Every structure is written in C-alpha cells, then in structure tokens.
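User: Fold this; tokens only.

Assistant: Input:
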Amino acid sequence: MFPGRLPQCSAILNVIKKLKIGENYGDVTPKSVPIRLADFTVCNSVIYRLLFTEKELRYSSTIMASAEHKNRLANEKSPYLLQHAHNPVDWYPWGEEAFEKAKSEEKLIFLSVGYSTCHWCHVMEKESFESQSIADVMNEHFVNIKVDREERPDVDEVYMTFVQVSSGGGGWPMSVFLTPDLKPVACGTYFPPEDKWGRPGFKTILLSVAKQWKDDKQKLLNTGTKIVDILRKTTVFDVAMSEALVSGSIPSPECWELCTDQLSKHFEPLYGGFGLAPKFPQPANLLFLLNVYSRDPNAGKANDAKSMILHTLKMMYRGGIHDHIGQGFARYSTDEKWHVPHFEKMLYDQGQLAVVYSKAYLLEKDQLFADTIDDILTYVSRDLSHPEGGFFSAEDADSFPDAEASDKREGAFYVWTYDEITELLSKPIENKPDLLLADVFSYYYNVKENGNVDPSQDPHNELTNKNVLIIKHSVTETAEKFGITVEQLKSELSGAHKILYDARKKRPRPHLDNKIITAWNGLMISGYSHAANVLENADYVKRAIDAANFIKNYLYNSENGTLYRSCYTDKNGSIVQIANPIRGFLDDYAFLIRGLLDLYECSFDPFWLEWAWDLQQTQDEIFWDNGSAGYFTTPPSDDILLRLKDDQDGAEPSGNSVAVHNLLRLGSMLDSSDLTKKAGQVLSSFTSRLTRSPVSMPEMASSLMMYHDSTTQIVITGKSSDPDTEALLSVISDRLIPNHVVLLADDNTSSILYRRSDMIRRIKPINGKATAYVCRRRTCSLPVNTPEELNNLLEQHQQHG
C-alpha cells in the first residue's frame, strides 16, 4: 500500500488498537508512542479515516497536531482560508501562482467561495474537502482556489452574478469551474459528496466536468467566452449608452412612491418584516420607510410606513433572532416568526440595526428601542471589539455542544433544554416561595419540556428537545399571570439573564472571525454615532472615535490616501502587518465616508469631515466610471473579468446607494455644487432600476428623495462645550428630521467648513449667544437663540418642506 512504509503503518495500527481499548485515551501522547510523527501523514487517509470514529480522531489530535497536512492556505491571514489550510485538497489562494499553474498544465480551475461563519461552507468542507478520495479527484484534474468572499468581494461578485444568471439563485459556498483564463463554464453552490435523491454528488460533478474538459476542451473555452460576453452585455454599461445616461433625466418622485407600494405588498403583517421564510432584518427597507414618514408625517402613506417599522422592530426584538441572553442579533431567521435563527452574528447587521433602532426611538420614544440600542452595542463592545478600537467581523453559527464533543452543531452555544432552565433557575421568586423563577422564565420565553423548535426548521436534528428563547407573552401578561408587579418581574428576569449568561460562558464559544473589514467598521461607526446622539451617550462617541482612529492607523495609506480592505490579528491580538494588503473596494470608501459624516455630527470635530472629503476625492479617482457615470464596485485589476456596479441593496446597501447620500451630504455641508451634480449623475445611471423595481434599491430611493427635496442645513454657532450650544444641539438630536445635515460654526477658521463654505463664513451668533439657522436651497430662516424657538422652527419646516 505504501512502499517502504509498511513497518511504520503497522506500528500505527498498534497505536490504534491501544486507542480503541476502553474510553480512557489520556495516556496516549506523542511521547509515549515510539513512532516518528511524520509517518502519520502518510498513513492518515487510509488508517485514520477508515478506523477512527470522529470522536476517536479528536482524542488522537495531540498525536496528529504537528503532522497535519498543510496546503498553501496555511500562509494566509483570512480566518476562512486558514480553516481550510489542513484539507487534503491542494488549495491555492486567488492569485498569479494558481493562474499560471492552470495555464501551464492546461487545467480547469475549481473556485470555492465562502466565509468563516458560513454553516453550509462548514458542511461542504467536512463532507467533501476533508475527504481524501474527493481531494484526490480535485488535485488530479483541477487547480483548486479558495476565496474568502468578505476579503475579496470583487471575485465573489463577478462569479455570483454568473451563478445567479445560470441558476436563478445563489449562496455560499459558491462553487464555480473556470477556464485557465478565469472564464466561468459551470457552477453551483453546496454539493453533497455523493449522489442522492436523484441528484449528482460533488465527486460525480467533478469527474463529469473533468471529462468534458478532456474530451472537448475547445468547446468549454468557447462556452466561457460566450458566457463572459453575455455577462458583460447584461451587467456592464457600454459606451453607446454613455450620453443617454449622463445627460438623461433623474428619476422622478414616483420612484419612491412606487418603492413604498412595493414594500407594502411584501410586508408580512402578522410578524412584521418583508416576505416569508427565511426572513432577514433588511435595514435598508426600514430606513427608507423612516424617511418616508419623517419627510411628511401627515401624508396618506406615512402611517402605514410607521406601522410597518414599529411592528417589525418590536417583533424582531421579541424573536429568537435576538439573543436575549448575550445581546445582539443573528443574521436571519429560518421561519417567518423570527423564532429559529441562522445563529451567526454579523457586524454589518449590528451596525445597521443600531442606526434603525436609534431612528425608531426618535419616531416613538419607546424605552424598548433605547434598550435595544444599548443591547446591540453592549454585544459589539464586549464580543466584537479589538482593544485598539477596530471591530471584528462575525461569530459563527456552529459550536461544540460541550468540551468533550467532537462535532459542532448549529446554535449549540445559544439554545437551552428544559432541564437546564429548571436546574439553573430553581430558586423561588422573592416573596413567592411556591413560585420558581424557572416557571416564570419559561412562560415568558416559551420554554417547553420537549423543546420549542418546529422540526421543519431543524433539518439536521441539531435542535431536538432544545429551546430557542422567544418572548411569547408580554411583561404585563406575565406579571398578571403570576401575581407579581411588572417591576418585580423585570428584576427577576434580569437576574435570570445573568445566571444563564454565566452558565453559557462555560460552553465552548463559537468561532470568532477576527478579520477587521473597513466597510463594516464604517457601518458600525455610524451605529455608535447615531446611538450617541439619540441617547446623549458620551461613551458611544468615544467608541466611534476609537474605531475611526483604528482605521486611520491600520487600514489607511496616508502616503497615497487610499484604504485597505481588511487587517488581521495574531494569536495574541496584535495587528499583523501584511506586505501586500488588499486594496479597498467601493463599499470600504462609501461606508467609511458615511461613518465619518455621522461621527462629525455627533462629535463636531472637523477632522472627521476633512478626512471624509479627502476619501471622497480618492473614491472618485479610483471608482468613477467616466464613460457611463456611477461607481464601479472594484478598483482596476488584471485578475477580475468584469468591473461591475452593484444594483441591489441587500444585507448591506450597495456602494452606489450610499455614495449618493454621501455626495449630497458633503455637497450640502461644504457648499459644493459639483458633488450634488455627481449625485444626480449616479441617480441617472440607475434610472431603469429605480423606475421598474425601486424595492430592490430602497437605499438609493432614499437618496433620490433627498435629492429632490434638497438637503436641509441646520447650523449652530457657538462652542460645542457651551451650555447654550448643547441645548440647541439637543433639540436636533431629539427629533426625527428628514434629509438634513447638522453643522457647528465655532469660529475655527482653519477647519474645512470655513475654508470651503461661504455660508458658514457668513453666519454669526446673535446677541453673543449660540444661534441656530435652518437653511435650504441657499435660503436661511431668521436666526433663533432658544431651544423652544428652534423646535418650533423645525416643526414648521417639516410641515411646509
């Protein structure tokens, strides 16, 4: 079987026999086994894979640890790529080495794209990429490339477009076969390892594609060329369209009215949200509706918009998508009730939801919304924060159920059995000796003896007899049922949360993706900045500033003014310096610029406004399409087939949608008609999308609203630390004001405001006191000095805007 290695394999078999006797594996260590560890590499696939159960493999990991096979991904920094560094697959990272190998050996490329907290990516790795027999096929017939979609969204975007066009859907893991010149010829997402249910398995597909390449290589090459031509024609604006786009009219207000109608049709009235299962938070939808309401609260559709917002946010708070014990929100729920989540937690959701709940708090001063803001930011500060200020990307859905488990399970860290709740919350309610805390808690959170998860939401039986906490009864209903006061109930539930949180800390934690992404940090800076304003929380201001400084220190090249996509930490938490960091993408610039504008409006430090302006100039230089207007999502690159423009606001808003907001805000803040004109050009380039299906781009529909209404400038003169100035600023932060910017004219004549804005240079305090001006379309109101006057002025402005 292994020429020259049979004696060593025989010795290893003796070790296996020793391991398989009884349940005590603790005495087997590398030191107690007279075998060279290197020998295990040779015998691994045949002996270990066939004779060891997964549990036994876990206990033998001390023997195998230093002898595991390593592929080229072991030299990468991405947590996702490192997860695959010990696969028997001969993985390459995306780059010239892999491309040259494919060309020189005339092999197809198998491209696998995913991310480190992706549940089905883990499943396919375990079933296929850890399989020696499948790896043998992959290594023989293909050059195999693994890509982290969060690290290289440009690669993901191009080939996901192909997957969606080809199959009508998409997802991760994404599996695409490419010619040596990177043209796609076949694709899919998750594949099971073997044939089942009448569908071919991954090995069958690999062999089939390999045979097609061997038998008729030219046909596949021609197919790839045709596919790229089709993609280019359907996704990239060609030169012939340029004049029509740039000189074309900007979409009319009917677009956002249509968007409101389309969202209303998709609204699910029972549990809130849009559409049925699976159900995502979709912050862009909610922010659009907040803008619809705030621009005219008395309009016919305003109350409908308000109802959709409030109902959705309250039901999300009550649902299992909200981590009631450890705070924060999961990525989505697998059912329409927000009950059973896909348990991974993403930074971009926390940042956007912090903004949504902050604005909703201004819409209706419900303490639940304020508590939810604190809840989200508590989670992010505690679990997703680097000590120097940056934010980590995500936490996994999967984890080990206990320290002795060999298999990870989805949701294991988060769910509870009835017996666990009964044991941990066994104490009686104060002054109610016959009433146990477990009974009250179980009623409130719908804890059931046999679990509360519908089996249809648990295809792998990972949640059998488990409970996902969901608020089934209100605080008032629960208090009345058990004959206690609302205040006592809240206190008891708070105590129960602490007990369960402490118990949960003893469980193995889900994997943390400690990649720090510029774009997502920008979204989180916005979240902290909005929360700082509406809750008047100085700690949140500081946290946003720390994050911005982190990006300045580690993700910004001050020599050429460009951003990097991401940075990484070592095992000690120190930032790792990379020789050739990945260049920033449109989202990195647009999301960070938005974050810096929000940070300016809560700190009024002109440094952040200055940096936002500089980044906008760089963004225009790198990404602007001089032929057709709008921004490409990627910088120029030799290894990307197409430069695309994302035309959908999904889990994250598109870079172009956010860019329009930024251009309008910066244009208004710094008195730049050029930026406002550029915003109009972007809107013109998306006229077709906004006219036919604005519901796919609610963030850009919000931008369109701001463009037509014109941005309102609220200018306060005075020092930010003066009580009179603070009082006027508090009026602004306490109201939901549509399409506005806030500027502080503090006589700092060296700041970018005074250097670039004629209006700021003209505005002065009245009677030596802090003064407020409300301006729009270069016309300002009469100045006012008191909070009451400013409040009345904003009320009138909103009614007659």
